[in-house]
């Protein structure tokens, strides 16, 4: 995302991410906010720090909790009428016995606290991303990731399978969710390779009060030990060999086809491929009418990341900007990028725009200086078009502040090419709600800005200001300038680094 301005300078951040095995130059038609944001969260997001090396929590592991919540959320899907699916309705379903467990609350709290939920990347997308990271964090295969899910605003039907139900009920439950009897066997095995059954949650299943967690297999990792131990008759899976025969649901499911499917999953290659396919399908099971983005299994080679104009910076000559080495930053990839062996650099450019002419579009050229032809990256020929450059967040004038009551706020300054008769409002998106229990829903606020007394008009621009939550991550601007409405959407505040002013008056 990139927007320009008059008079001022623009940072353009470019990620050049290329892996040795990626031979094609993939880029996407810009702008595409959901896809760009999904790619950024998958490859450079911060959520992975909670699942790297499959860490413990609540007597099980965090990744086990993240995979289970994804399945339970998706379980409301009904193929017959297209309702339900992975839609974060789980936020409204935690009082049900089938959704018992500290892991449900803790997972949702993780997803809220990291502040990655965005206008086009809700709790449901975050739950799906969490499942992808969970599997990878425990050494499992990479599951292609799509975004675009829509968050529900109420509970769905109570259709999560329970261990005391019979095989016919489970077969019907999985059919309703879109899976065949064979796929049911595999998907349960893929899920029950992580974590286990907690005594506090299912005392009628884990009857020994000393037994805090009965793991499904003897390895913490995402692997097919759950399968091999079952077939070797050495399993400790309490849903297979537990003292309460009624709740041996995994035994009934795993043996439902004479162990044929379980035998096939003894090959770890088949286990991997089957789990990738079925977990991806599970995560992409959404209510009909919801369209997901294309699936991501490798990064785009070029991503234009800059968006907001800045008031300061160096000047490009009329021939264009040239990157010098001190403006190249190494990209730190998430666990997904690290597993894929990626490396990448981010190049930052400042461009000076004449205030009276401004720019309508930009493009760039990459010269590896290795004898190969330079690569022109021009958004498929159309260039990166700048829709309007009359209304934008002024990075250089905006700042973080501590209020007299020691509250951290962001003082947003919006530059408007127009006079003081203009009116400006912003709608902010704050993913971190104050709620202490789910549902955790973002706070969306519309505020009218006032003329900024500290920044007098300059170069044809008038400055408007307001204070917003410092955890807000996106905002939209609407301005009325001389009777014309101008807007700037999806300003990504996480790409900016406003100065922090600690002693404001
Ligand atoms: C008939 C179907 C299923 C039944 C009856 C079932 C039942 C259970 C039960 C009783 C637990 C223990 C939860 C706790 O102690 O809080 C559990 C844990 C788990 N289930 Fe399932 N499950 C089913 C299918 C699945 C599927 C399809 C997946 C994912 C693909 C899955 C993933 C998990 C995971 C990862 C855990 C471990 C959670 C943890 O350790 O915190 N389950 N399941
Ligand atoms: C973990 O197990 C211990 C011992 O049974 C228990 O006291 C504790 O409450 C459990 N933790 C959670 C989060 O359930
Ligand atoms: C597996 O163990 C159970 C319980 O010990 C036993 O009844 C069953 O015959 C064993 N099956 C095989 C194939 O060894
Ligand atoms: C076995 O589990 C079922 C279903 O949860 C429960 O109704 C029954 O009381 C349990 N039996 C024993 C002996 O605990
Ligand atoms: C399937 O395998 C389990 C575990 O080895 C065994 O107990 C069961 O008898 C087998 N079922 C069939 C139908 O072979
Ligand atoms: C399955 O996937 C894991 C994780 O990517 C990998 O370590 C393992 O080698 C794979 N197994 C096979 C047989 O491909
Ligand atoms: C752009 O301008 C900023 C602010 O003056 C400066 O810190 C930065 O180094 C400049 N970047 C480039 C690529 O010249
Ligand atoms: C923003 O907060 C600062 C510090 O409390 C205050 O001085 C300033 O007037 C506030 N700005 C607006 C527009 O409310
Ligand atoms: C900004 O506008 C876009 C497009 O209408 C919308 O999808 C998004 O939710 C809006 N963002 C905010 C913070 O209101």
What does this structure look like?
This protein has 12 helices and 22 strands. With 505 residues, the protein is of the alpha+beta class. A hairpin with a 2-residue loop joins strand 2 and strand 3 (60-61). It is elongated and about 80 Å long. It binds protoporphyrin IX containing FE and 2-acetamido-2-deoxy-beta-D-glucopyranose (8 copies). Residues 119, 427, 429, 444, 474-476, 489-490 line the site of one 2-acetamido-2-deoxy-beta-D-glucopyranose.
User: What's the total count of β strands?
Assistant: 22
Main sheet makeup? 6 strands, mixed
Number of helices: 12
Strand content: 15-25%
Note the overall shape.
elongated
Q: Low-confidence segments, ≥5 residues, pLDDT <50? A: 1-25, 306-315
Which class best fits the helix and strand makeup? alpha+beta
Please bin the fraction of helical residues.
Answer: 10-25%
What hetero molecules are bound to the protein chains? protoporphyrin IX containing FE, 2-acetamido-2-deoxy-beta-D-glucopyranose
Radius of gyration in whole Å, from Cα?
26 Å
The oligomerization state is: single chain
Question: What structural keywords apply?
Answer:
alpha+beta; metal ion binding; elongated; Peroxidase; 505 residues; 23% helix; disordered N terminus; 4-stranded antiparallel sheet
């Amino acid at each position: 995302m990139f927007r320009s301005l008059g008079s001022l300078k623009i940072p353009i951040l470019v990620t050049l991410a290329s892996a040795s095995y990626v031979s094609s130059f993939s880029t996407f038609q810009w702008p595409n906010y959901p896809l760009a944001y999904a790619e950024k969260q998958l490859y450079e997001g911060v959520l992975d720090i909670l699942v790297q090396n499959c860490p413990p929590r609540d007597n099980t592991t965090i990744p086990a909790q993240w995979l289970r919540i994804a399945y339970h959320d998706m379980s409301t899907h009904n193929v017959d009428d297209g309702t339900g699916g992975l839609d974060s309705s789980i936020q409204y379903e935690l009082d049900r016995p089938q959704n018992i467990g500290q892991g449900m609350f803790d997972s949702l709290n993780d997803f809220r606290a990291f502040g990655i939920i965005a206008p086009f990347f809700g709790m449901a997308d975050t739950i799906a991303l969490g499942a992808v990271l969970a599997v990878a964090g425990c050494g499992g295969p990479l599951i292609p990731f799509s975004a675009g899910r829509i968050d529900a605003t109420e509970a769905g039907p109570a259709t999560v399978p329970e261990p005391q139900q019979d095989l016919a009920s489970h077969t019907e439950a999985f059919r309703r969710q879109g899976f065949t009897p064979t796929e049911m066997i595999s998907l349960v095995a893929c899920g029950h390779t992580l974590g286990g059954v907690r005594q506090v949650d299912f005392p009628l299943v884990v009857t020994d009060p000393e037994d805090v967690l009965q793991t499904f297999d003897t390895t913490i990792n995402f692997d097919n030990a759950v399968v091999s131990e079952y077939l070797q008759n050495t399993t400790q899976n309490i849903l297979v060999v537990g003292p309460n025969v009624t709740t041996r649901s995994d035994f009934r499911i795993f043996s439902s086809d004479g162990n044929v499917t379980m035998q096939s999953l003894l090959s770890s290659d088949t286990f991997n491929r089957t789990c990738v396919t079925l977990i991806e399908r599970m995560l992409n099971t959404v209510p009909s009418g919801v369209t997901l983005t294309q699936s991501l299994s490798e990064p785009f080679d070029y991503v234009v990341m800059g968006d907001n104009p800045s008031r300061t910076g160096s000047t490009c000559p009329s021939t264009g900007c040239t990157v010098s080495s001190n403006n190249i930053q190494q990209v730190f990839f998430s666990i997904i990028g690290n597993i894929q062996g990626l490396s990448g650099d981010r190049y930052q450019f400042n461009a000076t725009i004449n205030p009276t002419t401004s720019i309508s579009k930009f493009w760039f050229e990459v010269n590896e200086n290795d004898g190969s032809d330079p690569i022109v990256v021009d958004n498929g020929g159309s260039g990166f078009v700048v829709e309007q450059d009359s209304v934008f967040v002024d990075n250089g004038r905006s700042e973080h502040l501590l209020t007299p009551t020691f509250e951290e706020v962001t003082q947003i300054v919006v530059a408007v090419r127009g006079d003081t008769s203009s009116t400006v409002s912003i709608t902010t998106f704050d993913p971190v709600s104050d709620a202490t229990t789910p549902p955790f829903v973002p706070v969306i606020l519309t505020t009218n800005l006032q003329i900024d007394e500290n920044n007098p008009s300059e170069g044809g621009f008038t400055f408007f200001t307001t204070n917003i939550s410092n955890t807000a991550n996106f905002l939209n601007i609407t301005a009325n300038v001389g009777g014309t409405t101008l807007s700037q959407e999806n300003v990504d505040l996480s790409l900016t680094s406003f100065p922090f002013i600690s002693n404001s008056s």
